[in-house]
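Lab notebook: predicted structure, single chain.

Context: the supervisor wants predicted structures on file for every construct in the current expression panel, including those that have not yet been purified. This is the next one on the list. No modifications to the sequence; it matches the entry in the shared construct table.
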Amino acid sequence: MYQDLIYLTLEQEKENEDESILLNELVENRIEYFMILAESKNISFQTHLSYNTLYADRRKITRVIDNLLSNAIKYNKRNGTVGIELHDNMLCIWDTGIGVEHQDIQFMFDRYIRFNQSEGGFGIGLSIVKSILDEYKIAIEIESEKNKGTKMVLRW
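Prediction complete. Output recorded below exactly as produced.
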């Protein structure tokens, strides 16, 4: 949440420093970063990461991955699973969490919208994700089912 607020107030307007990013290495690094949070809820990771690159600003792509991973952990059930697949210009992050109602999916990227008041946050993370993905013309598809989980698929 703190990093999202910093991004909104200070970093959003910085000039991009686009580079070729080894996404498999970046995703592995971010999983390691979130491991303590996941372990606190006894959440396991299932990963299948193939070599993949993306030409973009590392800071912004890290913000996207961090938001999607932290949401998959935060809105997951105890003893749940977070899955991450990376191959053929596609990143999929899914969870076995609380999910959202089908009719609410269209509002997930609206700023300040939150579907679960029991978890912390201001509802800004996914709006940041969407603005970054739009900037780099990365498509996102969402599948979610209440009490079963959510899947976010990015394609470029």
